[in-house]
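In the laboratory, one determines a bound structure by crystallizing the protein with its ligand and collecting diffraction data. In a computational setting the workflow is compressed into a single prediction: the sequence and the ligand go in, and a structural description comes out. We illustrate the idea with protoporphyrin IX containing FE.
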Amino acid sequence: MVPGFLSPSLSRLGLWASGLILILGFLKLISLLLRRQKLARAMENFPGPPTHWLFGHALEIQQTGSLDKVVSWAHQFPYAHPLWFGQFIGFLNIYEPDYAKAVYSRGDPKAADVYDFFLQWIGKGLLVLEGPKWFQHRKLLTPGFHYDVLKPYVAVFAESTSDMLDKWEEKAREDKSFDIFSDVGHMALDSLMKCTFGKGDSGLGQRDNSYYLAVSDLTMLMQQRMESFQYHNDFIYWLTPHGRRFLRACQVAHDHTDQVIRERKAALQDEKEQRKIQNRRHLDFLDILLGARDGDGIKLSDADLRAEVDTFMFEGHDTTTSGISWFLYCMARYPEHQQRCRDEAREILGDRDSFQWDDLSKMTYLTMCIKESMRLYPPVPQVYRQLSKPVTFVDGRSLPAGSLVSLHIYALHRNSAAWPDPEVFDPLRFSPENASGRHPFAFMPFSAGPRNCIGQQFAMNEMKVVTALCLLRFEFCLDPSRLPIKALRLILRSENGIHLRLKSLRPGSGK
Ligand code: HEM
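The predicted complex, in structure-token form:
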């Protein structure tokens, strides 16, 4: 109980505190309104769909089918339109090759309004870094994707795929459709951990599985946070049930990362292991990070090391999972292309058991189908920038420095000016003759310019090996009662999974 003589000063303190909170709140509101005014004025030459007074376009964007909603807006507003997540974050949403080139050929920074939401999870790794530190890390890590490093990964991809396919033999016998997405995800995580983090042959453990589930949660929660203005403030978000769920999932991801780093550091204590690494002509990604020194011989800090491992662990498996799963869906949907890819793979393989490095460049039809499937189902459908200097677009309209830009890769890939009959699955769009005259910024699954995907070659190789092996072992068919519903969760997923029916092609399976 507070003694009577103290209560007047306590209540005065309470009054002062409430007054201060009110003033701070008021100042924050003024700064947000000024910001809104600046962003809105910058985009006044760009008409767009009507906005809700409070939510902007967030309600429409959160609905099922939002990706195709943006495509319909793109028909109405050629080149670009404003896109508001609430009242205070407004992007110019672009989906036209010349517009994309004007921004993405330069090295403008990532939009902090979106990418800062990553910080609690993947820290300041390559995806989020800016300026000289980004340049230093990109230069440091590029040799980890050198062609000589990538070569032996072909065998690793084949090994992880074979484990998945053996599991699928059993499911195929049940003659029912099943969701392939999470099996592909576990296979892609297994491959990544073996290739870039030097994991042994033991297969995924319980911790890896928890990591896989945590990433699925984190991508869903991040997307929801971006689109919900009430979650934009850190302080408020961490107090909500979704914010606390995000923190719990981050903890699971960080435990996994710490374990991977700890195990490799322990292995490095072992002299035999050290000699083995020194004798390797090319180091893997984790060797490079652990051995990195700056000009003064100082190692990467623990925070930098963890951020890079977290970044690559996420970017390196979730994106390829989406790419491979949607590709198999396309094959099921277009059986004539499925058969052509299978025939090509059979011919390349001959009487051998598995693919080798030189085979990858011979998979021409399969590569065209992979590109066509990434055109229609880009694994990363949207990326964001903040302009460091003004930009003038091809039609004379411009944006000042500080403006926010969203590149809608999904809508760009369905822009009928660049892609006639955009909804038609036609791999021949990517034949050398047809591709040669196309705008270089019309197809951007890996983004473009200085901040493009560092793992592009790794990803293409993985997708070729995995999908060719899948098609050799199974015929993939749709389940018309469970067609996938596209969902943007940072990467392209499906609300209801990707359900396919598989028929084994193994001799003796009766097919
Ligand atoms: C089909 C597979 C993949 C697709 C479609 C893809 C797509 C992309 C895109 C669109 C970006 C630009 C992101 C942005 O601007 O915010 C990006 C960046 C990045 N990707 Fe990928 N990616 C794939 C696979 C991979 C793999 C396998 C790795 C690593 C092993 C990887 C690592 C990265 C990293 C570290 C960045 C940031 C690069 C930087 O800013 O310097 N990606 N990726």
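DSSP finds 22 helices and eleven strands in the chain. Keep in mind that any predicted model is a hypothesis to be tested, not a measurement.
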